[in-house]
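TL;DR need structure tokens for one chain.
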Amino acid sequence: MKTGLKALPPSISIGPTSAGHAVSLCEAVGEVARERRWLVAVEGFSESETRLFVQLNQAAGVPQFVALCGLTVVGWCDIVRLYPHPGYEHNGRLGIGVVAAWRGQGLGRGLLDHALSAASGAGFRRVELEVYASNTAALSLYTSCGFTVEGVKRAMRHLDGRVDDVVLVACSMTDGSPEALLHG
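>> reply
TL;DR here they are.
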């Protein structure tokens, strides 16, 4: 889905995540996690954990995409089922990240566009995520794509001498159309 914003760098492609991406995805997630600022995890996951995550998401038919520079994963985005309980299956939790060297070049928006475009087809009607209040670039991206703030967990994270609020943002696809959400 195109939002009319800046194009991706020519060396970048975005496509569905496959088991073949697991090793590079594991490295990308680990790199972002070790920054200790953007993700809940402060260490990456093992290759076997990453491969299992990808395989389970493929089997569940949920959106998961990677941004690639050649064969190297430099960003990812997925939407997983938030609750397995009856009446809640339409809720998804978004996970997204871009390695430091590629931030500010439109990869986050491109990944988010792909995931939200696939969300309705996977049965999602609501997508949420939690983001640190200090991550103003991410908050700006989410709100520009139709997410709204639903709540704030004050001083939720105390790490490395920093205290951060956690902001819950969500978007609703009540008409089943991420297009309305992205261009609302």
